[in-house]
Specification:
This protein is mostly helical. The chain has helices at residues 11-16, 18-31, 41-77, 83-88, 102-133, 136-148, 154-173, 183-207, 211-219, 224-235, 237-252, 256-261, 283-291, 300-333; strands at residues 92-93, 98-99. Strands 1-2 form a two-stranded antiparallel ribbon. It is built from 14 helices and 2 strands. It has a domain at 102-333: MetI-like fold, CATH 1.10.3720.10.
């Protein structure tokens, strides 16, 4: 048999000869299957629905900002109060034409501070116990019980503050010191309401700390308490701060507890506003009380509610931005 009949076509020959390359490509096109994307209507509908959900939340937020901003602009353009007077005046009396938000803001800050004095230490302590000390069966039992507090309606908390916490405070500090409607009772019960949120988020932050950090601390001779305070808590600080600021936002936006237990009239700045045992009306409580009355549409009193709502929105937005920046900073440190 001659060598001419035994010639073999190599890939190098195909690359050099265009005719061989074209023949090879034609043969591959005729034998190999063509991969195409199969149309899946169900998957396309799911993607469209998820996109709609994401856009809906964005447009809802934009709509809230537009409504609050436009109505607040009508209030400030009416000439009854300038932006400076709105944030610096010390009286809120719409009937007298006085629109200083400081009394409402001070009562909001007072109840929020009282609430965080209760929720932060108790919530952090509960998170440390559930995450570091409790056995798995104990954790599985206690955590759902703790989270039940988050499902109780706030109106129940409000009546609890009015009928239980207020008499308790008046019995401890005296009826002349503690008024029937006071910021302390509302703040204490509000702290109990926020407790599950802070405890759950803090426990998640502690659980996210790598086990290797704990084992390294134990290997150096540290006790469990020293490991928690000097290793675990610093490593989980970003999540704990985020939980704290989220709790503050939750306290600032609470309505029913302060509407029922804190009072139904703005305090007098410099006299009773920062007194926790005195009555005071928060921003959310004032909106709930006034909006339920007979208000004329597009009146000054009606538009003033939107200015309070816009202030509340900006306040909570700033807290969320601070939470994100602080969490990002400490997460980079302990990454």
């Amino acid at each position: 048999m001659s060598n001419r009949n035994l010639s073999i076509t190599t890939p190098l020959d195909i690359g050099r000869d265009p005719r061989l390359l074209n023949a090879r490509l034609k043969r591959q096109d005729s034998t190999e299957p063509i991969l195409t994307k199969q149309a899946r209507p169900g998957e396309m509908l799911i993607r469209a629905f998820l996109l709609f959900c994401g856009l809906l939340s964005v447009f809802t937020t934009i709509g809230i900002v537009v409504v609050l901003g436009s109505e607040s602009l009508l209030f400030f353009n009416s000439g009854v109060a300038t932006l400076t007077e709105f944030f610096t005046a010390t009286r809120w009396q719409p009937q007298a034409g006085e629109f200083g938000i400081m009394p409402l803001l001070s009562a909001t800050i007072t109840t929020s501070i009282v609430a965080m004095f209760v929720a932060l230490p108790l919530g952090l302590g509960a998170a440390i116990y559930l995450g570091e000390y409790a056995r798995p069966n104990v954790r599985a039992t206690l955590k759902p019980i703790l989270e039940i507090l988050a499902g109780i309606p706030t109106v129940v908390y409000g009546y609890f503050a009015l009928t239980f916490m207020t008499p308790l405070l008046r019995g401890m500090f005296g009826q002349d010191t503690v008024q029937i409607y006071n910021n302390a009772a509302a703040g204490l019960v509000m702290g109990v309401m926020i407790l599950p949120t802070i405890a759950s988020m803090s426990e998640d932050a502690l659980s996210a700390v790598p086990r290797s950090l704990r084992e390294a601390s134990y290997g150096l001779g540290a006790t469990r308490f020293e490991t928690i305070t000097k290793v675990v808590l610093p490593a989980a600080l970003s999540g704990i701060i985020a939980a704290f600021l989220l709790g503050v936002s939750r306290a600032v936006g609470e309505t029913m507890i302060v509407a029922l237990a804190a009072g139904a009239g703005p305090c007098v700045l410099g006299d009773t506003c920062f007194n926790p045992f005195a009555a005071g009306e928060t921003m959310t409580g004032h909106i709930a009380r006034i909006s339920g009355g007979d208000l004329s549409y597009n009146s000054v009193d009606y538009n003033s509610l939107f200015s309070i709502g816009l202030t509340l929105f900006v306040f909570t937005l700033l807290l969320n931005l601070i939470s994100r920046s602080v969490s990002k900073r400490f997460r980079e440190v302990y990454q």
